[in-house]
C-alpha cells in the first residue's frame, strides 16, 4: 500500500492562496492581527427596549468525542448551534451546506448529493458499486454515509450540526478522509417539561405553495427519566414544469431498414411536478440509572417522497424547453425511507468515563427515472441494432427506443463503539476505544424498454422488456481500535498523539448484463471478497497565547477503504486499494475578553495519494462503471469564520474558504487525459457567506431583522480535461458561480414568535450539478424566490 509521506510545499502557491482567501473574505486579514495582538474597542450597549444579547453564544461540541467549548478544540470545527439553525430557517441539507464554507456538494435533487470537504473531489459518478465518499456523515453516534445518496434529514429540534474539516479518520474511521459532517439531535431533559409547535407557509415564484408543521414535547416521567418526542410533516410545492414534446427514435427493423418513430410525453405533462413530502417521528428515552450511569434510547423514522426532477434543460438540443422546464417521457419518482434505533450508555468511573454507543439502521430507496435521452447518444447504433433487428421477427419489430430506469436499494448498517475517556482535570487526557461496523447494500437496477423487439431469447432474466440489469449486493465490514492522548506540558503548551488500526472486509456479489444477449457483451457475474488493514496517525500541538487565544499545528491522515469492481479489463483491475490524504494545518482560535468578537481559522495543505476514481467510460473496456486508483492531487487552502457583536443588538457573522485543489501529476486513463495542474472537479475555489442580525423593538415586542448573503464560486463538472485518441476534446464544463440572498424579520413576545422571510431574493439559478455525458444537457437548480411566514409557540 503506497502511503503519502511527503508534502511538497510551493511557497508561491501558498502565498497566492492565502492572499486570495483573505482578500475574498474581506475582513480576515485585518482582524487576525487585531484579535491576537491588540485589545479591541467595542461599541457600548444601546439603551433601548430591543432584546439585549450579551456576548457571542458559546457553542459546545463533541468533535473529539467529549464535550468541549469549540474555542478550546485545537482543530478546524464549524458548528451551527440550535439557535443558528432556527435563526437561519434551516430545514434540509442544502440549507445548511450553503453556510458551511468547508463543505461542497453536487446534487440531482433531495437526498441525491455527493459531499466534499476542502476541495477533495474525485469526480465520481455516484455508482453504487464504486468508491465510498471521502466525507463521512454521522447522525448522532452512527455513520450514515451512502454513495451518491446523502441522508437528507429534516432539520428540526436539532442540537447542532458540526463540520469537522480535514482528515478525521483517527476518531471517526473510514470515509472521514477529508472531513466529517455530524448531525446531533436534542436529547431528553429530566428537569423540566417543555413542548413546542411551529407552522410555516410559503409561495415560490412560478411554483406551488409549500407548508410545514412540526412539534416536540419533552416530558419528565420521574425524577430521573424523561422522554422526548418530535414529529414533522412537510410539503414542498414544485417549480419545474414537464412540458409537452416529442422524442424521435431511430429504429432498425428485422429487415435491416432504418426508420424513425415519434413518441409523445402527453401522459406525463404537468406543471410544477417536482414535489416533495417529508414526514417523520423521533422518540428518545433517557434514564439516569443512578448518580453515575445513564442510558439514552432513541428511534428515528423518516419517509421522504418526491415526484419529478430538480433539474431543468434550457440548453436542450431540440429547443422546445426553457427556464425551469424539462421533457420527461417516463415516471420520475423517489421514495426514501429510513429507521434508526440507537442506544448510548454512559458510566462515570471516577476519573474516567465509559461509553457504549450502538446503532441499527435500515434504509429503503426506490427510484424511477426517464432514461430515454441515452438512446440519443447512440442514435442509429448498436442499441437500435441489438434491440431491434437482432431480436426482431416477422411480427415483432421495435416500436420505440424509450428507456425507463428503475432502482431499488436496501441499506442495512449496525455499529458498535466502546470507549473509555478521561474526565478529570489532570494534565493527561485520553480517549481509547473499540469499533465495529457491518453494512450491506442490496441494489437492483433495471433499464426497461417497452417498445423493444420481442425475440425468442429476449427474456434472459425473466423480466419482460428488460434491456439491462444490475442485481448485486455489497457488504462492507470494519473493525478498529483507536485512541487519542493529550498531555499538557505546562499551562500553555499541549501535545496530542492519535492513531487508528483498522481491518476492513468487502464483498461484492451478483450480476450485471443485458436482457438481450448482445454479442460481445457477456453477462458479468461477480462474487469476490477482499481484506484490507492498516494504520493512520495524527499529531497535534497547541499553544494557549492567552485565556482566549489559541494557536495549533496538526499533522493528520485520513483514508477510505478499497473495494471490488464488478468487472475487470485490460485497463481496470478487479479490485482497487484504499486511498489516503495527508494533511498539515496551522490554525487559530480567538475570542475577545468581553466575548463580543470571535475569529477562528486554519491554513492547510493536503496531499491525496492513490486517488480512487469511479466512472463509466467505454474506453475502460466494459459496459459498467468501474473504479481505479489513478494519481496524486494536492490541495492548498484557508478557511475562517468570524462573529462580531458590534453593539448589544447587532451581530455580524462571516465565514469563507479558499481551495487550490489540483492534480499533482498527469492523469491518463483509457482515452481520457488531464495534465498536471488541472483543477479538481465539483468544488469552488472560493465559498463564503456573511450574515447580519439586528434586534429592534417593535412596539412592546422584541423584534429582529436579518440578512444573509452566500456566494459559491465557479466549478468544473469533470476531472478529465480531454478525451479522444489525440486528447483533443474538452470534456469539462463550467458550473457558474452563484449567490443567494435571504432576508427575514420577526417579533418575539413571551413564548411565541412570528416571522416573514424571503429566500433567494434575487431569484438566482444556482447550478448545483450538470450532466457530464454528451447526451445529458440537464442542470440541477435551486428553488426560485420564495416568500413565507412562520409561527411558533413554546409551552413550558
What can you tell me about this protein's structure?
With 796 residues, the protein is mainly beta. It has a single domain (11-795), classed as TonB-dependent receptor, beta-barrel domain (Maltoporin, Chain A). The protein has a 22-stranded antiparallel β-barrel. Strand 36 and strand 37 (672-674) form a beta hairpin. The protein is globular. The termini are far apart. Mean pLDDT is 89; it is low at 1-52.
Secondary structure layout plus pairing:
Layout (H helix, E strand, L loop, with lengths): L10 H14 L3 H10 L22 E2 L6 E2 L7 E5 H6 L5 H5 L5 E5 L5 E5 L17 E5 L2 E2 L14 E8 L3 H4 L6 E7 L8 E11 L5 E11 L4 E12 L4 E2 L3 E7 L5 E7 L10 E14 L4 E15 L3 E2 L12 E2 L6 E16 L3 E19 L2 H5 L4 H8 L14 E19 L5 E21 L17 E23 L4 E22 L9 E23 L2 E12 L2 E2 L10 E2 L2 E13 L5 E13 L2 E4 L10 E4 L3 E13 L4 E14 L3 E3 L2 E3 L11 E13 L2 E12 L2 E2 L5 E2 L5 E2 L3 E2 L2 E12 L2 E8 L7 E4 L8 E3 L4 E10 L1
Parallel strand pairs: 6-9, 13-19
Antiparallel strand pairs: 1-2, 3-8, 4-5, 6-7, 8-9, 10-11, 10-48, 11-12, 12-16, 14-15, 16-17, 17-20, 18-47, 20-21, 21-22, 22-23, 23-24, 24-25, 25-26, 26-27, 27-30, 28-29, 30-31, 31-34, 32-33, 34-35, 35-38, 36-37, 37-41, 38-39, 39-44, 40-43, 41-42, 44-45, 45-48, 46-47
Amino acid at each position: 500500500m503506497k502511503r503519502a509521506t511527503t508534502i511538497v510545499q510551493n511557497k508561491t502557491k501558498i502565498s497566492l492562496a492565502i492572499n486570495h482567501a483573505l482578500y475574498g473574505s474581506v475582513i480576515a486579514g485585518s482582524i487576525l492581527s487585531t484579535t491576537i495582538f491588540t485589545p479591541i474597542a467595542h461599541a457600548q450597549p444601546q439603551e433601548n427596549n430591543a432584546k439585549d444579547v450579551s456576548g457571542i453564544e458559546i457553542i459546545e461540541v463533541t468533535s473529539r468525542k467529549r464535550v468541549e467549548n469549540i474555542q478550546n478544540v485545537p482543530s478546524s470545527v464549524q458548528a451551527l448551534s440550535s439557535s443558528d439553525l432556527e435563526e437561519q430557517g434551516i430545514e434540509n441539507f442544502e440549507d445548511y451546506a450553503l453556510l458551511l464554507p468547508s463543505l461542497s456538494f453536487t446534487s440531482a435533487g433531495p437526498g441525491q448529493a455527493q459531499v466534499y470537504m476542502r476541495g477533495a473531489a474525485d469526480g465520481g459518478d455516484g455508482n453504487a458499486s464504486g468508491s465510498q465518499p471521502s466525507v463521512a456523515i454521522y447522525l448522532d453516534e452512527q455513520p450514515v454515509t451512502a454513495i451518491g445518496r446523502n441522508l437528507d434529514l429534516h432539520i428540526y429540534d436539532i442540537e447542532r450540526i458540526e463540520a469537522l474539516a480535514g482528515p478525521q479518520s483517527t476518531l471517526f474511521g473510514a470515509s472521514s478522509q477529508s472531513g466529517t459532517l455530524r448531525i446531533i439531535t436534542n436529547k431528553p431533559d429530566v428537569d423540566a417539561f417543555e413542548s413546542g409547535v411551529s407552522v410555516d407557509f410559503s409561495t415560490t415564484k412560478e411554483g406551488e405553495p409549500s407548508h410545514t408543521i412540526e412539534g416536540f414535547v419533552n416530558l419528565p416521567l420521574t425524577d430521573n427519566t424523561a422522554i422526548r418526542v418530535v414529529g414533522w410533516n412537510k410539503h414542498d410545492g414544485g417549480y419545474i414544469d414537464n412540458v409537452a414534446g416529442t422524442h424521435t427514435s431511430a429504429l432498425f427493423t428485422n429487415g435491416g431498414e432504418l426508420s424513425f418513430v415519434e413518441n409523445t410525453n402527453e401522459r406525463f405533462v404537468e406543471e410544477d411536478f417536482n414535489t416533495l413530502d417529508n414526514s417523520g417521528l423521533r422518540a428518545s428515552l433517557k434514564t439516569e440509572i443512578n448518580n453515575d450511569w445513564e442510558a439514552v434510547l432513541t428511534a428515528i423514522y423518516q419517509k421522504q417522497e418526491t415526484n419529478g426532477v430538480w433539474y431543468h434543460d434550457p440548453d436542450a438540443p431540440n429547443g422546445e424547453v426553457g427556464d425551469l422546464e424539462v421533457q420527461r417521457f417516463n415516471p420520475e419518482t423517489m421514495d426514501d425511507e429510513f429507521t434508526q434505533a440507537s442506544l448510548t450508555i454512559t458510566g462515570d468511573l471516577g476519573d474516567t468515563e465509559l461509553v457504549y454507543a450502538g446503532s441499527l439502521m435500515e434504509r429503503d430507496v426506490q427510484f424511477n427515472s426517464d432514461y430515454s435521452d441515452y438512446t440519443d447518444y447512440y442514435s442509429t447504433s448498436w442499441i437500435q441494432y441489438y434491440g431491434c433487428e437482432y431480436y426482431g421477427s416477422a411480427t415483432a419489430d421495435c416500436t420505440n427506443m424509450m428507456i425507463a430506469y428503475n432502482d431499488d436499494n436496501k441499506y442495512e448498517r449496525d455499529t458498535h463503539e466502546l470507549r473509555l475517556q478521561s474526565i478529570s482535570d489532570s494534565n493527561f487526557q485520553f480517549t481509547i476505544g473499540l469499533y465495529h461496523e457491518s453494512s450491506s447494500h442490496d441494489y437492483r437496477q433495471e433499464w426497461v424498454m417497452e417498445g423493444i423487439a420481442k425475440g425468442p431469447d429476449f427474456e434472459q432474466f425473466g423480466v419482460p422488456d428488460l434491456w439491462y440489469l444490475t442485481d448485486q449486493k455489497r457488504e462492507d465490514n470494519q473493525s478498529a481500535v483507536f485512541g487519542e492522548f493529550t498531555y499538557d506540558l505546562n499551562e500553555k503548551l499541549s501535545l496530542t498523539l492519535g492513531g487508528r488500526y483498522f481491518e476492513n472486509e468487502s464483498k461484492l456479489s451478483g450480476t450485471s448484463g443485458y436482457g438481450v444477449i448482445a454479442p460481445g457483451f457477456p453477462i458479468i457475474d461477480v462474487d469476490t471478497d477482499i481484506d484490507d488493514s492498516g494504520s493512520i496517525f495524527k499529531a497535534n500541538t497547541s499553544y494557549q497565547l492567552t485565556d482566549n487565544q489559541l494557536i495549533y499545528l496538526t499533522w493528520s491522515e485520513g483514508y477510505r477503504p478499497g473495494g471490488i469492481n464488478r468487472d475487470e479489463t485490460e485497463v481496470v483491475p478487479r479490485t482497487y486499494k484504499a486511498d489516503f490524504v495527508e494533511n498539515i494545518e496551522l490554525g487559530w482560535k480567538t475570542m475577545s475578553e468581553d466575548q463580543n468578537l470571535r475569529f477562528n481559522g486554519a491554513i492547510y495543505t493536503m496531499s491525496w495519494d492513490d486517488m480512487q476514481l469511479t466512472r463509466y467510460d467505454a474506453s475502460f473496456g466494459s459496459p459498467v462503471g468501474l473504479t481505479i486508483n489513478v494519481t496524486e492531487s494536492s490541495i492548498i487552502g484557508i478557511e475562517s469564520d468570524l462573529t462580531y457583536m458590534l453593539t448589544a443588538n447587532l451581530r455580524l457573522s462571516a465565514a469563507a474558504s479558499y481551495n487550490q485543489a489540483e492534480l499533482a501529476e498527469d492523469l491518463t486513463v483509457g482515452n481520457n487525459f488531464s495534465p498536471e495542474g488541472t483543477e479538481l472537479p465539483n468544488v469552488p475555489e472560493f465559498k463564503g457567506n456573511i450574515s447580519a442580525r439586528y434586534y429592534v423593538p417593535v412596539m412592546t415586542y422584541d423584534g429582529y431583522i436579518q440578512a444573509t448573503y452566500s456566494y459559491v464560486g465557479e466549478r468544473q463538472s469533470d476531472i478529465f480535461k480531454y478525451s479522444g485518441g489525440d486528447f483533443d476534446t474538452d470534456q469539462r464544463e463550467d458550473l457558474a458561480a452563484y449567490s443567494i440572498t435571504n432576508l427575514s424579520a420577526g417579533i418575539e413576545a413571551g413564548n411565541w414568535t412570528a416571522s416573514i422571510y424571503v429566500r433567494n431574493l434575487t431569484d438566482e439559478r444556482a447550478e448545483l450539478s450538470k450532466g457530464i455525458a454528451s447526451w445529458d444537457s440537464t442542470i440541477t437548480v435551486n428553488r426560485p424566490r420564495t416568500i413565507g411566514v412562520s409561527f411558533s409557540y413554546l409551552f413550558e
